[in-house]
Automatic annotation (TrEMBL):
It comes from the Bacteria. The electron transfer flavoprotein serves as a specific electron acceptor for other dehydrogenases. It transfers the electrons to the main respiratory chain via ETF-ubiquinone oxidoreductase (ETF dehydrogenase). Its cofactor is FAD. Keywords: Electron transport, FAD, Flavoprotein, Transport. Heterodimer of an alpha and a beta subunit. InterPro entries: DHS-like_NAD/FAD-binding_dom (IPR029035), ETF_a/b_N (IPR014730), ETF_a/FixB (IPR001308), ETF_asu_C (IPR014731), ETF_asu_C_CS (IPR018206), Rossmann-like_a/b/a_fold (IPR014729). This is Electron transfer flavoprotein subunit alpha/FixB family protein. Belongs to the ETF alpha-subunit/FixB family. Residues 4-178 form the Electron transfer flavoprotein alpha/beta-subunit N-terminal domain.
């Protein structure tokens, strides 16, 4: 069976959930192998093996942390030259897309970004993308070189399939070009107990309908009741009712959770561009003609300040 190379992402506590999703997807396509740029500790290797990585390529080079994305791209290229995988899978996101694009150019291969599904069809790796505010699904096949594919977080549910991975250390000689831009300092973001927006399987998003900065409280309360993340529209971040890094949409983050609750959100095309791939969309809006209802699976016409607290109560009762 051909190898499918997954670029693993590490967190301070282990392996990012999106990487485990990629390994789950890779099992459908061939034999999953993970590339760890950084320290492949026993815990990291065990976590990757738990989700089916039969091989772990370890590139423990300090250059990966000291410089921007080029060393990661060169590490992927070194491993692809060695193992000739049938496809390379990377998590969609600013860094993932940067690395994937550089790898595809250097391999002279086709690149597909933001896939929401990847299957083998007629022996060929075939991707699905959700485009034009979710109005179309596009199926594509890379016809040149090794397919390099970035996959949206939450596109699949991570499922365990434990194996004992073989660890191979890979020495990479980084080019001078890869060391052209160094990271000079890192400031960790003040963390909240909520999941990261990019990885969250539940997102509760508030629009201008929240009415004020204090109105964000009802959004946060429902997000906490559901164990989800908080998102906002650009109207809300432009009004400084919430930080810009919570903005979802064309000029914000692109998300695809299992459940997206949009409250007081009109559903402008630029907002939809960032959340259209969500699996189940619930809209709460007092205007029955709000465009968000056109893409919602469930809708409540009503005032969010009444509907959301009632939902929080109900979730609380059911969780008991
Ligand atoms: C180049 C460009 C890029 C953009 N990028 C983004 C982007 O990345 N993300 C983004 O979100 N937008 C983006 N926008 C802005 C976008 O066009 C919309 O203006 C914005 O999404 C509207 O935000 P909203 O839905 O919160 O506000 P509004 O459109 O004002 O809608 C508020 C909604 O709340 C409802 N409402 C009001 N009170 C209540 C209540 N008490 N209970 C329930 N419902 C209530 C109203 O009926 C209405 O439907 C961009 C625009 C441009 C031009």
């Amino acid at each position: 069976m051909s190898e499918i190379l997954v670029l693993a992402e590490l967190t301070p506590t282990g392996v990012r959930k999106a990487t485990l999703e990629l390994l789950t997807l890779a099992r459908r396509l061939g034999e999953p192998a993970a590339l760890v740029c950084g320290e492949a500790t026993d815990e990291v290797v065990a976590a990757l093996g738990e989700f089916g990585a039969t091989k772990v390529y370890a590139v423990p080079a300090p250059e990966v942390a000291q410089f921007l994305s080029l060393p990661k791209a060169e590490a992927v290229l070194a491993v692809t030259a060695r193992s000739e995988p049938a496809a390379v899978l990377v998590t969609s996101g600013p860094e993932g897309k940067d690395v994937a694009a550089r790898v595809a150019v250097r391999l002279d291969s086709g690149l597909v970004t933001d896939a929401v599904d990847v299957v083998v069809d007629g022996g060929v790796v075939t991707t699905t993308q959700s485009v034009v505010a979710g109005a179309f699904h596009v199926r594509s096949q890379v016809v040149r070189g090794t397919p390099v594919i970035t996959v949206m977080p939450n596109a699949v549910t991570a499922e365990a399939a434990p194996v004992q991975p073989r660890v191979e250390a890979v020495e990479v000689e980084f080019s001078e070009r890869a060391k052209g831009a160094a990271v000079t300092s890192r400031t960790p973001k003040a963390s909240s107990a909520r999941p990261d927006l990019a990885d969250a399987s539940v997102i509760v998003a508030g629009g201008r309908g929240i009415g004020s900065e204090a109105g964000l409280g009802v959004i946060e309360a429902l997000a906490d009741a559901l164990g989800g993340a908080v998102g906002v529209t650009r109207a809300v971040s432009d009004l400084h009712w919430a930080p810009h890094d919570l903005q979802i949409g064309q000029t914000g983050k692109t998300v695809a959770p299992a459940l997206y609750v949009a409250a007081g959100v009109s559903g402008a095309i630029q907002h939809r561009a960032g959340m259209q791939s969500s699996k189940t969309i619930v809209a709460v809006n007092k205007d029955p003609k709000a465009p968000i209802f056109a893409i919602a699976d469930f809708g409540v016409v009503g005032d969010l300040h009444t509907v959301l607290p009632a939902l929080v109560d109900e979730v609380g009762k059911r969780r008991g």
